[in-house]
Amino acid sequence: MQKTQQRVGIIGGMSWQSTALYYSLLNQQIHDRLGGLHSADIIVHSVDFHQISELQHNQQWDELSRMMIDSARLLENAGATAIAIATNTMHKVAPDVAAAISIPLLNIISATAQHCRADQLQHVGLLGTRFTMHDPFYRDGLQQHGLQVTTPDTAAQHTIHQIIYEELCQGTVTDAAQQQFLAIMKDMTEHGVQGFILGCTEIGLLINSHITRHTLVDTTQVHTRHIVRHLLGQH
Is residue 119 within 8 Å of 195, Cβ to Cβ? Predict the structure, then answer.
């Protein structure tokens, strides 16, 4: 029987809610493309997010890098032909992971930047965890593709970060949180932002095109489509 897909290894669990969405989207997209009983040829290594979160907030990125490398090598040894880290924040250590494996790392930042360029977005607002908004790794990755990037002010970053970790990562979605996000986004449009990168895989659980007219770049959707292209050998 002819093999129809490459195999991709997914590092997930950060949070499990967004990894479940990755799993659903990948399988749905493969089914839509191939039909019949086809599903995605993926291997998922789901880590304990409690430990990851503690290390993030303690700024122990060297240890986090080691853990992501271990996961990537585990998946490579299991037969994956590419690796995807199913979270934006942990792409802070993506260069370390890419250097430690012999197969491609399907980078969410690069995929997002390419999507923005194809959509003719030039000035984007970046929403995500405090690490994603404040630390330079994500902003620099977008700017390398010629994008102008604006992040919320410090107080708004704190609000967004708190909602992500204390609500969305625990499966809680509230109208109050939604309104806080929308108010922050409205303020950012006054600074010339053309569209918003939902730079945390949980934000799409809260903000979508049904509740706002702002142009949204849902990184979970973008990343899963990028992964599917690899699965189908279209990379």
Answer: yes
pLDDT number for residue 55: 98
CB under 8 Å to 70, separation ≥6 — which residues?
none
CATH numbers and ranges of domains, the chain:
8-107+222-231 (3.40.50.1860), 109-218 (3.40.50.1860)
**In angstroms, rounded to a whole number, what is the distance separating the alpha carbons of residues 216 and 67?**
31
Verify cis geometry, omega within 30 degrees of 0, for the bond prior to 15.
yes
Q: Quick one: pLDDT at residue 2?
A: 59
Q: Are 167 and 177 in contact (CB under 8 A)?
A: yes
Residue among 200, 201, 219, 220 flagged as catalytic: 200
Active site (annotated) includes residue 224: no
Nearest to 12 by CA among 72, 98, 78, 55: 72
Catalytic status, residue 174: no
DSSP string, 75-125: HHHTT-SEEEES-SGGGGGHHHHHHH-SS-B--HHHHHHHHHHHTT--EEE
Q: What distances in angstroms separate CA 172 from CA 132, 151, 201, 202, one per listed residue? A: 21, 24, 14, 10
Catalytic residue among 19, 87, 151, 224: 87
C-alpha closest to that of 11 among 122, 106, 95, 96: 106
Instruction: Report pTM.
Output: 0.94
Q: In what order do the strands lie in the sheet with 8-12?
A: 42-46, 8-12, 82-85
Distance CA 82, CA 42 (A): 10
Confidence at residue 4, expressed as pLDDT on a 0 to 100 scale:
79
